[in-house]
Design a protein that fits this description.
heterodimer, A: 82 residues, alpha+beta, Ubiquitin-like (UB roll), 5-stranded mixed beta sheet, 3 helices, B: 146 residues, Aldehyde Oxidoreductase, domain 3, 4-stranded mixed beta sheet, 4-stranded antiparallel beta sheet, 4 helices
Chain lengths: 82, 146
């Protein structure tokens, strides 16, 4: 079970700020494909991966990162701080 | 080193004075403050979302890098989230060094990294509705100079 968080417009498209996901996927990309196959709202949210970033256990990471041992994943658009 | 992430408005003068008072041995202190830009009165408000937990860690890591690279005596980042209106301060950076070149460079480095690597997302609210602010290519490109 992985805690998955969504921020900004991704949160709006998914319709939830966070959820617990049970998956057989072994990588971040595998999880995204799993979610997209489940419901249209995920297919919409994850339609353009170049517009998205991922953090694995609160560290910026990449879509090919492994999920073994991961507790928390976060998906979001490029950051606009400052 | 101090990292403050809060919704409340902050007192720029009080924070700057406290920072300067604590920076023993400094010959230069640079402070930068970012405000909500109100484009000719079109903006009703700005809403900033962030990632509690990661935000503090990501900023602390940037500050550590800056402290080491420019041998800073101290550094501080304050960044707000939540709703604010035009003219309000969103964030500030302060750096203290022996000489001004290091203090200026470190402040710019922190600003560049906060723009693109701290998990904040801005949403502009206007009479036309709400829109997420898109990340700018030149903000990403700005990181390359470091």
């Amino acid at each position: 079970m992985i805690e998955v968080l969504y921020f900004a417009w991704l949160r709006e498209r998914v319709g939830a700020p966070r959820e617990q996901i049970e998956t057989q996927a072994t990588t971040v990309m595998g999880l995204i494909e799993d979610l997209k196959a489940r419901e249209d709202r995920y297919a919409w949210a994850f339609g353009d991966l170049t517009a998205l970033r991922v953090a694995v256990d609160q560290e910026l990471s990449s879509f090919d990162a492994a999920l073994a041992g991961v507790r928390e994943l976060a998906f979001f658009p490029p950051m606009t701080g400052g | 080193m101090r990292v403050i992430v809060q919704a409340e408005a902050f007192d720029l003068g009080a924070l700057s004075n406290a920072f300067a008072a604590g920076a023993a041995g400094a010959g230069a202190i640079v402070t930068f403050t970012g405000l909500v830009r109100d484009n000719a009165g079109a903006l009703a408000a700005m809403e900033i979302e962030h990632y509690p937990g990661m935000t503090e860690k990501a900023i602390a890591a940037m500050v550590d890098q800056a402290m080491a690279r420019w041998s800073l005596l101290d550094a501080m980042v304050v960044h707000r989230y939540g709703r604010m209106v035009g003219g309000e301060a969103i964030m500030m950076v302060a750096t203290a060094a022996r000489h001004r070149a290091e203090a200026f460079a470190a402040a710019e480095y922190l600003m560049d990294y906060l723009k693109s690597r701290a998990p904040f997302w801005k949403k502009e609210l206007s009479a036309d509705g709400a829109a997420w602010v898109a990340a700018r290519d030149d903000d990403e490109a700005a990181l390359k100079r470091w």
